[in-house]
Amino acid sequence: MSATFVGMPAFPVAARTALADTQLRANLAHATGTIRAKRAKVVAEVDNWEELRLAAAGIKDNTLLHLEEHLVRLEESLTRQGAVVHWARDAAEACTIVADVAKSHGVDEVVKVKSMATGEIELNEALAKEGIAAWETDLAELIVQLGDDLPSHILVPAIHRNRAEIREIFLSHMAAAGRPAPDDLTDEPARLADAARLHLREKFLRAKVGVSGANFAVADSGTLVVVESEGNGRMCLTLPEVLVTVVGIEKIVPTWADLDVFLQLLPRSSTGERMNPYTSTWSGVTPGDGPQEVHVVLLDNGRTRALADDVGRQALRCIRCSACLNVCPVYERTGGHAYGSVYPGPIGAILNPLLKGVGVDAQTDSLPYASSLCGACFEACPVRIDIPSVLVDLRAQVVDSHRGDRFPKAEALAMKATALAFGSGGRLGAAEKASGLVGRLLGGGGRRRLPGGRKLLGRLPGPGAAWTDARDLPTPPAESFRAWWKRTGGRG
Amino acid sequence: MSARDDILAGVRRALREADTSPVHVSRGYRDTRPADVHLFVERVEDYRAVVVRCALDEVEARISDALPRDARAVVPDGLPWRVPGSVADDGLSALDLDDVDAVVTGATVGIAETGTIVLSHGPGEGRRALTLVPDLHVCVVRADQVVADVPDAFAVLDPDRPTTWVSGPSATSDIELDRVEGVHGPRRLHVIVAG
Q1: Where are the domains of chain B?
Q2: CATH number of B33-194: 3.40.50.300, 2.60.40.1120, 3.30.70.270, 3.40.50.10420?
Q3: CA gap A323, A100 in Å, rounded
Q4: Contact check, Cβ <8 Å, A307/B14
Q5: Do the strands A83-88 and A293-299 form a parallel or antiparallel pair, or are they unpaired?
Q6: What kind and span of H or E run contains A394?
Q7: What is the predicted ipTM?
Q8: Measured between CA atoms, how close is B94 to chain A, in angstroms?
Q9: pTM, to two decimals
Q10: What pLDDT, on a 0 to 100 scale, did the predictor assign at position B67?
Q11: Which CATH class is domain A11-138+208-303?
Q12: Any idea of the CA torsion for B150, B151, B152, B154, to the nearest 10 degrees?
């Protein structure tokens, strides 16, 4: 478990590597295409889909705008139901709390339900340092963990792996973690799932401590909710004696009844099913049923920072369905690793800068630009997060955070030059004359044309090449509008 | 300052200048519709579960049909039907449960629109582990327990009880998004819709 996102290069560099991997691109195109079709079919079945989206966005906004009140109520309800509530300002605090619970029971292993929050705080790595093995039990997480790999999708972390690669990983790595894969394992998905069932069952049956996240936390009843498919979640939530659940403070809904919107939106947006195979809800400790010691860790880790951002606050509505990833033309081509975080894709491009802040590291600052602003993500989002607007706002924040830099970026210099030229008629005329001359010089031999028939420039020399490598640049016209008007008086 | 006070102070600070006037939430989606038992059967079948319909007095016969010969089936307290080869739940461990072939339970709610069965783990349904570890789950849902949709289900469920929402047998789509039935939960789900 040494794989980490720490030290990942900025998006454009990471994307270039990903784009060169043809196997990865084939795996992703197949997987995202399949899930898009499934989602579209089950969303079309619901005639009041838009009404549900509006209700979900409204419920989340009302909760976020009064978050203190709801957090305090959640704490009271959880305590009343027999849970122990902990608060964690950051990843380190949260990891310490979980490790302390595990150590107090003298265990050297825990079983885990797939959880974005525990991935975000790198809990497995922290527990490993304390000598505690954290076994991932979701099939895709298991594939990632055994392959010493990184997750690349919110819902299907091993989406970048095909069946042949998964078979290889199981054959070479399962034995070191427990029950080995059968020698005659084929790459049929059913056989691979069966190998995972056998490998994990012994871990479920002996586990003393389970660790989970939660999709929702209900303030008025202290109910936590885990939505899953395989039953590994039920195993971890039910069989161990002790359960620790790490919950981001934005996961709150006010009432039990409010869940009725989200359990309609989430499965259809996420796996493209009318309902996922299993959903578990529990409120603290139930005597005689399931874990008798229940801990809940309420995690900030940048969420209050995101909450303070008037435009970006809506990102905290996110229910981690991953619909935005599956419809994103950028994600479909680069995959998730290029985003350098457990939260990839369009939601990752806004959530990471909102949680971590801009102007701190180049990798995070590059994310708001990892988008063509086509808007497909906003349309697919079940809680109506206007991702393109947040992206544009974050781009402005990134630029603002670099205004005092000692060495301004090329873009800032170009913008300055443009401002200078646009600031005076004489300077603009001179610039237009120069660009017309460039157009005649460079565009003369160009054979490629834009759809309207206008000639295209080839690759620009010098720093301009960075622009023309990825975009078509039309040949500047030989004469500017103002020169044409002066010459003809508008009659020619 | 404790982490709790720090976080709550952070929340207050973050929202100091925010417009906190309430957003209107329309609940038109909660309009009640009649429950359609035929749709429930169809939707449960869509998940590749086995579904049979029968009269209330035929339930015991259908349970017996659903269980393989000589199968040992664990049965929760309070189940109103007799089950052949039944094993009472007298505090069986997870390993014990791994040794039985099946579990037979009732349910609290069936949801027609999504083909979902909800257990709330009271009498006749048993603690959560019972319906999780054995490989075959035979579940009896009375027709009068079927509601139209998800909001109707939440309206009758008690948040203080643990609940398990079951939509077909356990499944995964983690390998190339190809759906495979049967991972960790019961690989076979047999639903008897009675009445």
Answers
A1: 33-194
A2: 3.40.50.10420
A3: 36
A4: yes
A5: parallel
A6: helix A387-401
A7: 0.97
A8: 6
A9: 0.91
A10: 97
A11: alpha beta
A12: 90
